[in-house]
Amino acid sequence: KALQSIFVISTLVMLMWGSSLWMQLSFDLGLKGKKKLIDFKDDGFILKFLLFISYGFNDSILQVWAYWLMGQFSDDLGTLGRYAGYYKCVQSGMAAVSWRLGGIPISPIATVVVNWVLATIGIICAYFSVKTYMEDKSTENYEGVESPSDKKAVSLH
């Protein structure tokens, strides 16, 4: 389940950041030194609106997924508390870095690319952590239990 979820998450994230880059390029190429305002009556508003919604959707999905993944790594409450504490520490640290970078004049395209690269690195690290540290519990604790995969008739009483 964890590997399948990583592929779904990575697809959502890559679509979001690819759309962000496409949208930002359309802003930068059409600006020519002027600030472009967005109105809900504009032709392309719905695409921008859907992209903005996808930021919030992906953020919430990734947060829930991160906590679910931590829960898959351990059943010990002390260990899970340390995992959650470390996760929140890194999340808060990156929020502080983001806040500081917001005050520095950086190209919006550079910001999108940096975020996309960081998201890709995070997904790669999650993939390796699942492949390396998560044990397969699919058949554990089910020995002696009849199932259709045993190619036996399952009695239904």
From TrEMBL:
Transmembrane segments: 6-25, 45-68, 109-130
Keyword set includes Transmembrane: yes
Keywords (A to Z) from UniProt: Membrane, Transmembrane, Transmembrane helix
Top-level taxon of the source organism: Eukaryota
UniProt KW Transmembrane keyword: yes
Name recorded for this polypeptide: ADP,ATP carrier protein
Organism, as annotated: Aphanomyces astaci (Crayfish plague agent)
High-level lineage: Eukaryota, Sar, Stramenopiles, Oomycota, Saprolegniomycetes
